[in-house]
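Journal club prep — side note

Before the paper discussion, L.F. wants everyone to see what a predicted structure for a comparable chain looks like in token form. Sequence:
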Amino acid sequence: MSLQKPKQAKLLQQIRDDLQSSKAVGYQGILCANFRDIQKFFAIPDSKSRNISIDPFKFDSPSPDDMVLEGKHATGKSAAAKSNSSSATPTSSLSNNVEAEVEAQETRSVVQKKKALTSTALPIVNRTDKNQREVGCRFLGQQEALSDRTSEGTAGDHEQRNPSNLKKVLPLEEYKPESWMLVEEKEPYKSLLHLAIVGHVDAGKSTMMGRLLHLLGQVSEKEMRKYEREAKQKGKGSFAYAWVLDESTEERERGLTMTVAVAHFELRNFKVVLLDSPGHKDFVPNMISGASQADAAVLVIDASIGAFEAGMYGQGEGQTKEHAQLMRSFGIEQLIIAVNKMDTIDNSEGRFCFIKSQLGPFLRRCGFKESSMIWIPLSALDNQNLTSATSDTRLNSWYSGPYLLEAIDHLQPPKRDISRPLRLPISEVSKSRSLGQVAISGKLEGGALKIGTKVLVMPAGVVATVKAIEQDTQVCSVARAGDNVDIALQGIDISFLMIGGVLCHPDYPVPIAIRIELRVVILDITMPILVGSQVELYIHHVREAAKVVQLLSILDTKTGLVRKKAPRCLTANQNALMEVVPDRGACIEEYNNYRALGRVTLRAAGRTIAVGIVNRIIEQQ
């Protein structure tokens, strides 16, 4: 005992006395004492217990949890310990009994926990489940059960949502259209023309289109009288025709078009889809989303004294220039310039020529060719040069050109790309009585579809089936590139549909770009564009915050060759290459593959700062 401290010697003597008197021994010969005190006892380096040690946390033998999971029981050890206790020394017997008791207590604790957890009727995950997944922890409760139930219950959803699990992505060059997609010569088919109506605020765009629809019989006399009565009651009698397209309460109270209104009418050569766009600077994003579908445009100019100047040169508010630049960036080549309200200036030829001399050079700088521009003086309210040639001698004395409807009907038919895989950017997600709970609207930019066609909805990566197709509220069985349609989908939840998403061919999915190279033209900006500049990125119906991460080069405006590499900044009227990273991945195509999905507009601080194309997708999901 010379090596023992007084406390340890006292504890050893007390335990031995209790052992000899059998007061501390339970029914099975197991010592009833505090385990920490017993452990201290066996750590005493005396002559009898020097070689005895306890390792309750050995890792070379199965733990109690492992024994429970593998169906083993610890009773064998306890029985062996009990049978050997009579032949062993008191100290060694105490050691074996303590080990057995500790192991039995831990085993009972694990069994009780297992019973409590399994009473919730959740399945217990084995070491290796049916998918041969290695379980890396010993949780027997809700986490493994929920994981197992999720892996079984949503396996099909996971496979459906991941486009890489569906089919191998094929290159676009291998696509061949099916025979039903092509238009037969015997089939009666009128080309569809999407016509955007743009211009400065209060130029009379909605009034002109409302008057046009009324004259064409698209609005009944009863409806027109109703609009006139309601407009007079609110003190806006001159807005009656505008209310044909401005249907919301807020638009009528403010006297402004806020969203793109859609209307349809038919001419001898075209089925026209009218896109009446807002002119106020606050609603340019809405105008971009709608007018980006257009094949041609009507730029409406207010001929009144001061009104044209405000739209052309107004500080921060003139939208004539911005709308013209945006139309050209959308790929529109055919432009009708409708100089409206000629009655307010007595149909003056001098005023018309002045407007043409001021606006014409700017439009040519934007890229419009003189042969593709048509100038028409008219008065919408008086129906002068609107649906028929003017009868006013003050106007027809010096103007003998086409009237508006005639000019529209003689535009060149737009080219349709049916030979490319399906692409349908989603412009609207809605519910309707005829189409059901899951319906989308948009213009087919490539390919064709029919009822029963399987489509891949991006960026969700979910496959759905076309259930019904409507065009101008008329049910149809086939839709081809260029058609503006409403489509009902089945086999998909509406939460997977979003504006800016794209319906595409399952074998040829649209890329989800996260880093793109843009070739842009910088507009009349006051602040230079730097690396790190925050911008708003607009591509078809995508509107996403983005950051300029690299300025690659400045290009020559005439030859397109690199004039300066890695510039520090970009200023007004420069052509440049830059890299942009959107905050979220967006459905974008390179311009060479799909032009409509590769045209880009950059805005910042409420102004358009650059327009251009997607030159290259650097990185995609």
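L.F.'s comment for the group: Residues 553 and 565 are 4 Å apart (CA to CA). Keep this in mind when we get to the figures.
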